[in-house]
Predict the structure.
Amino acid sequence: MESNTQTILIVFVALTGVAVLLQACVLLAIFISLRKTAKSVLVVTDDLKATVVPMVHSTRELLERITPQIITVTAGLSELTELLRKETAGVSFSVAEIMGRISRQTQHLDAMLTSGLNSVERAGTLLESAVTLPVRQANGIFAAVKAMIETYRSAAPPRRPPYPDPDQDKFV
């Protein structure tokens, strides 16, 4: 049995050696592929540096040139905003004052028109009472005179005999 154990032991050692050799080959393949990838990444990085770095420098130069102008424009906009705010406050105050004056003038005009119309109405009422009363009285006088004239002009009404006529039948 001892020989069997030795054989099995040799087989296991051989298999372990083959596995270690296979692992070494896989690690070598991984190393080679990582090296190729690193070289390609290095090439891409160099290309990227070649295009991005000049763009970053030109952007930085552009920002350095534009920054004073941006600051000037910002300050101008700030002043303009403040000026507009002040002018708006002045305009709103002026509008409020004008609206107050218009309101007062409208109330004054309304009071004048109301007073004038009330005076016209009172004058009309006085005129009506001053004219209609004498006109009614004159109409009454004219009607009385007319009635008297018609009474004197008309023929006298036939008179009834004081006694009934005997020739007439009596109503019994």
In short: The radius of gyration is 66 Å. Residues 20-152 form one domain.
